[in-house]
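Need the bound structure for FE2/S2 (inorganic) cluster, inputs here:
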Amino acid sequence: MRILRAFLGVTFVYAGVQKFLDASFLHSGTPGYIGNQLRAFAQGSPIGPVISALAHVAPLTGVAIALIEIAVGIGTLLAIAPITSAAIGLGINLVLFLSATWHVHPYFLGSDSIYAVAWGAYLAGLITARRAELERAAPLPPRHRAIVEQEIARRRFLRGATLVAGSFLLGIAGSVLAGKPPRTSVLGGETPGSPTENGHTPRPNGTRSPHGGGAPTTEPTAPAGTPIARLDSVPVGGAVPFHDPSQGPAVLCRLGTDKVAAYSRVCTHAGCLVDFDPGSGVLFCPCHGAEFDPKRGAQVIGGPAPVPLPAIPVTIDHQTGEVLAKE
Ligand code: FES
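Answer from helper R.:
Posting the output first, comments after.
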C-alpha cells in the first residue's frame, strides 16, 4: 500500500505540474495543444462524444485536468481524503484508457490500463483498512463523541483547504515557469483529419487510426505516380506534409541531396499527428512524446509508440526534379 501510495501520488503531482510547465499544452496552434489531443482521442473512442464536447472548451478542460491530477496526487501522498482521491484517480485512468490509449494494441502497451488496476487495488486496500479501523474503535461516551466529531470536522476542513491551496499554488508556479512553447508546428495539423466513411483507416499493425485516409485536407494529395513536391522545394534536412490516399496525412522528408523518405503522420501509439523537428531531424508526437527517426525507416527512438510509422514508397524523377508517389 505504501509503495502504491508513493508511486501514484508522485506520478499524479508530476503529471499535473508537467501540464502547466508545458507551454504548448494550453497554447492553441502548437502541436501539443490539449484541443488537438482531445480531438484525436475522441476518434473511435467509446466515450468519443464526451471527449469531443470537452474539446470545445479545451483550455478549461486542460486546466481542470491538471489541477485535479495535482489534487489527487497531494491527497494521496498526504492521506487527505485518501479514499476519494483514489476513487478520482481510478476514474481518471479509466477515462484515459477509454480514450487516449483505447487504440493501443495489444492493450498492455498502453499505460492507462495498469494505472487503473493500481488505483483499483489501492482503493480496495484503503476500504479494507478503513473497515478494520472502524471495527477496532471502542464506542465513546456521547459527550466525548461530540468533541471527537468536531475535531474530525475541523481537521477535514483544514486538510481540504491545504489540498486546494497546494494544487493552485503548484499550478500557478508551473504556469509561471513554463515560458514560451518550445516547438511550433512545422507540418501543421492543429485540426486532425476527419474519419473516412466507415470511421477509420486500418493501419498495418492492426490498430485503427483516428485520422482517416479520406480526410479533407489542404495538403497536396498524391496518388501513385503523381508528384508530391519539387525536390528543390524541400531543403536538405527538412520535411513537407502531403496527403496520401491510403495512409492519410503524410510527411515527405529530404534526408540528403538525392535521398527522400515518406511516412504516414499518424502516430502508432494512439493516433495523434506527428510533427517534424528541424533541430533534431526527428518526427515527434505531441501527445505522449513518441519520437521516430526518418533516417532509419521511422524507427521508434523514444516514447510509447510500439512500431515505426508506416513508410510510403516515393521516388525522385531526376528529369523533372519532382518527388513522386511510387506506383
Ligand atoms: Fe501517444 Fe503519439 S499518440 S505518443
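Comments: Residues 190-217 have pLDDT under 50 and may be disordered. The pocket of FE2/S2 (inorganic) cluster is lined by residues 267, 269-272, 285, 287-290, 303-305 (CB under 6 Å).
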